[in-house]
Amino acid sequence: MRPLIAGNWKMHGTLREAARLAEGVREGVKGADLLVCPPAVHLHPVAVVLLGSPVAVGAQDCHAAAKGAHTGDLSAEMVRDVGATHVILGHSERRANHGETDADVRAKAEAALAAGLIPIVCVGETEAERLAGEAEAVVTKQLAGSLPDGFAAAGGIVAYEPVWAIGTGRTPTEAEVAAIHGTMRQSLVGRFGEKAQGTRLLYGGSVKPGNAAGIFALANVDGALVGGASLVAADFLAIAQAF
Ligand code: PEP
């Protein structure tokens, strides 16, 4: 399947910097789909910069409700309306900083699908869970709780992001990544059927130009969710070219 390299810009940059970064990746790469996920206030201007480009735009979150009294929140329809085609959901920073549960993530993913957005649902164990030998069980449980019915059929995407690898420069071994991705594939096929063979499984956590090729060579790794390295256009493109 065609890989996806998604950049999570998190809460970084001014409008000018976001526009410049979007200009820097605008041409995309031959061998992979690219997606950039700017802060919500930069979604529309970045989408304008990327008009006519193969690079897609995604949001970093959305609310589960279609509208209502939710001060400070954005609905799936709102982010789609300003140019997003994808939305990252259940990132570990949202699970940790905003107390999002699997049920919350599932409700948001349902809202995203209803609005015509492709959800990228993040799962991943903490360091304590990995050390306790619980990584596969934790990820399997998060998948079961966070993905709505119809997820695979609608083209939903999963990102495996070990919490301890995010922004730390540390990564699991290639064997550990392959093991989790294989487990995720099995669990998705078990629930959604053969359709889930086509579900893109991204790896995220300290992906850099130097380690991307090794990770991308693994079975069931269909791309990456990139944080820090997606803030430098040349690095983001180099990662995408490593596929
Ligand atoms: C992320 O937060 O989604 C991420 C993968 O960050 P980094 O690449 O900086 O580890």
Q: Radius of gyration from the CA trace? A: 16 Å
Q: Any low-confidence stretches, pLDDT <50, length ≥5? A: none
Question: Looking at this structure, what is the CATH superfamily?
Answer: Aldolase class I
How does CATH name the architecture?
Alpha-Beta Barrel
Ligand inventory: phosphoenolpyruvate
H/E element sequence: EHEHEHEHHEHHEHEHEH
Number of helices: 10
Structural shape: globular
Total domain count:
1
| Physical arrangement of strands within the biggest beta sheet | 1-2-3-4-5-6-7-8
| Proportion of beta-strand residues | 5-15%
Task: Using the coordinates shown, work out and report the CATH topology.
Answer: TIM Barrel
Q: Count of DSSP E strands?
A: 8
Report the major sheet.
8 strands, parallel, barrel
Provide key terms for this protein.
single chain; about 240 residues; alpha/beta; TIM Barrel; 8-stranded parallel barrel; 8 strands; binds phosphoenolpyruvate
Describe the protein's topology:
Layout: E1 4-8, H1 15-25, E2 33-37, H2 43-49, E3 56-59, H3 76-81, E4 86-89, H4 92-97, H5 102-114, E5 118-123, H6 127-131, H7 135-146, E6 157-160, H8 174-192, E7 201-204, H9 209-216, E8 223-226, H10 233-241
Parallel strand pairs: 1-2, 1-8, 2-3, 3-4, 4-5, 5-6, 6-7, 7-8
The structure holds phosphoenolpyruvate.
Protein name: Triosephosphate isomerase
Subcellular location: Cytoplasm
Family: Belongs to the triosephosphate isomerase family.
Structure write-up:
The chain is α/β, with parallel strands linked by helices. The protein has one domain: TIM Barrel. It is built from 10 helices and 8 strands. Strands 1-2-3-4-5-6-7-8 form an 8-stranded parallel β-barrel, surrounded by 6 helices. The protein is globular, with a radius of gyration of 16 Å. The model has no long low-confidence stretch (mean pLDDT 98). The structure holds phosphoenolpyruvate. Residues 8, 161, 166-167, 204-207, 225-229 line the site of phosphoenolpyruvate. Keywords: Cytoplasm, Gluconeogenesis, Glycolysis, Isomerase. It is found in: Cytoplasm. Belongs to the triosephosphate isomerase family.
